[in-house]
Write a structure and sequence with these properties.
The chain is of the alpha/beta class. It has a single domain, classed as Rossmann fold. It is built from 4 helices and 3 strands. It is globular and about 55 Å long. This is MSTO1 protein.
Length: 180
């Protein structure tokens, strides 16, 4: 009597420790990142001009821009120059959306710039919910298109990331890598 029920493990506070409201996953990040370690893709921000980064080709085309590649290389060289003995790189990359294309181009750049160094790539996919899976008679055209994009992004990401990595390890909490 008088005791409140235990909060659900999935319940998320809507307040950041500093008291501001939550808009992005990074609002929960308690670690302070060095400014050189963060590269913001302005056109694909949550309130950006182009909407969301949903296709492999969109991600790949971001790194076709010489200014973007130069900025990325400058940031990378900043950290590489600080190393006494560089052994390799770890790349964490979403497979299910346009970041698979970004990751593919980044691993290609690392492979070209630092041949002989190990590249361990983690291809990440979220757990797909039952509402997003295709079942006969209960899908919308938007769900169908999202599933096609997800499948193509995952397939292209696996092929490209594994071809430029020393070791490629796909990971998901679901058993299907988000592919149904």
């Amino acid at each position: 009597p008088g005791a409140s029920p235990a909060p659900s493990r999935l319940a998320v506070s809507q307040e950041v420790p500093s008291g501001g409201s939550v808009r992005l996953w990074s609002d929960y990040l308690n670690v302070r990142l060095h400014p050189k370690s963060v590269y913001v893709i302005r056109q694909y921000m949550h309130d950006g001009d182009c909407g969301c980064l949903e296709a492999f080709g969109q991600g790949e085309s971001l790194l076709q821009d010489p200014g973007c590649v130069e900025e990325l290389e400058d940031r990378l060289h900043f950290y590489v120059e600080e190393c006494d003995y560089l052994q390799g790189f770890q790349v964490l990359c979403d497979l299910h959306n346009g970041f698979s294309g970004v990751g593919a181009k980044v691993t290609e750049l690392l492979c070209d710039e630092y041949s002989g160094k190990g590249i361990l790539t983690w291809g990440l996919t979220p757990v797909s919910s039952n509402t997003g899976t295709l079942t006969v008679g209960s899908f919308s055209p938007q769900d169908s298109q999202k599933n096609v994009y997800r499948l193509m992004n995952t397939a292209l990401g696996i092929v490209h990331l594994s071809s430029h990595s020393s070791l490629f390890c796909p990971m998901s909490l679901g058993g299907s890598l988000g592919i149904k």
